[in-house]
Amino acid sequence: MIDIHPTSVVDRRAVLGEDVKIGPNCFIGPKVVLGDRCILHNNVTITGHTTIGPDNEFFPNSVIGCAPQDLKYKGGDTEVVIGAGNVFRELVTVHAGTELGGGVTRVGDHNRFLVGVHIAHDVQIGSHCVLSNAVQLAGHTCLEDRVTMGGVIGVANFVTVGTLAYVTGFSRVSNDIPPFMIGGGDPARVRGVNRVGLSRWGFSEERIRRLTRVYRELFSKRATRSGVSILEKIEKLEADGPLNDDLRYLFAYLRKCTLEGKHGRYRESLRTDTAADLGRFYAEAPVAPLEDQP
């Protein structure tokens, strides 16, 4: 059974799963695949080349699959791919990928996107993340699994937020945030271990204590003032004793960001665009010389 309100517009080429419910004044485009048991409240727009798994819920005025705002986008048939069990609250926007960014904006499973969240082109989001009101993810950013973000946060292009990290509200995030840590501020920096989040996800006190000891050696004010590079600190910690999986993952993450990243962002090293890719926009909108402007 599919329940479609008579005021909604659903293109006959769209593919709808079983037990889908579509409320008043919604629009579903021709290249949309909507999984079983999805619920669309009123005034939801799903367009573009968008594939959505089962059990997703879309609240009023969410807009999914529109063309990206990136000036380098060339009009290609890029995609949005969404997993299962996500909730998109009011005014959430998810834009399609770009040709130069891999072509796909991807969202995993069981995430919660609260009012006014923006997910820009080519963003990659894992599973079990919570993004509070007005979080703004710029293009090419990556959130690993089980990330939690407070409200009104701006995340710059190509930033990665590691698994089980927590970002405090009203932060400006321009560098990668390591896994298991709390990041925040303007600009954001590592401020502690995400003890509450780790506990909620079943970490033992011993695992949390080990991460806390490592935080003190790597990110505390004393460690920062020491003048020792983070790579040297990691080498010392590795030499001190056996590592569990948490520390191996954290150290690998930090090495990749430090050795391969640019401007504190690993994904920045993956970008392929050049200034010439913006040429079309500026060529089509020439600006008069300053002396000729009123």
Word description of this protein:
This protein is an alpha/beta fold. The chain has a domain at 1-140: Hexapeptide repeat proteins (UDP N-Acetylglucosamine Acyltransferase, domain 1, 3 Solenoid). Helix content is 20%, strand content 25%. It contains six helices and 28 strands. It has helices at 195-200, 205-218, 221-225, 230-240, 245-260, 279-284; strands at residues 3-4, 9-10, 15-16, 21-22, 27-28, 32-34, 39-40, 45-46, 49-52, 57-58, 63-66, 79-82, 87-88, 93-95, 104-107, 112-113, 118-119, 124-125, 130-131, 136-137, 142-143, 148-149, 154-155, 160-161, 166-167, 172-173, 181-185, 188-193. The strands form three sheets. The protein has an eleven-stranded mixed beta sheet. A nine-stranded parallel beta sheet has the order 2-5-8-11-14-17-20-23-26, with no helix packed on it. An eight-stranded parallel beta sheet has the order 3-6-9-12-15-18-21-24, with no helix packed on it. A hairpin with a 2-residue loop joins strand 27 and strand 28. The chain is globular, with a radius of gyration of 22 Å.
